[in-house]
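WARN retry 2 of 3 for item q-0093 after timeout on previous attempt; input resubmitted unchanged.
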Amino acid sequence: MKSANRVLWAILFASLFLASLPCAGAKPGICPNYYGPYEPNPIGQPEYCENMMDPGTYWVKWAHGPQSGWDWQYWDQVDMKANTKYVMKYDSRGELSIDESYDSSLAGYTVFCCRNEGPDEIVFCLESA
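OK item q-0093 returned
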């Protein structure tokens, strides 16, 4: 009986310890969550910018078209620096490119934006490298 009580106390202690650790859930836009889908914008509306995030190196995963047909693919790795805005452009030929610009208003963070000038919807997520 004493042995069973020790086991129960050990399980209880381990459970409480694990519960006290920070949650490792995905942040918005960080794979497996995602940003978008963004519709094509024929009038050239400015990009859609997402939440400010910590600088770091990320893989860009993307898909396009209707959600039922998404085929997620890796595109490129981006070393996102502090105080820098990144704009991923989906052009009329269905190709991606990224422009970056310095932005001191980001106060040490970075931001990732999407400009959809493509033929269909686009969705993307960032995966830590």
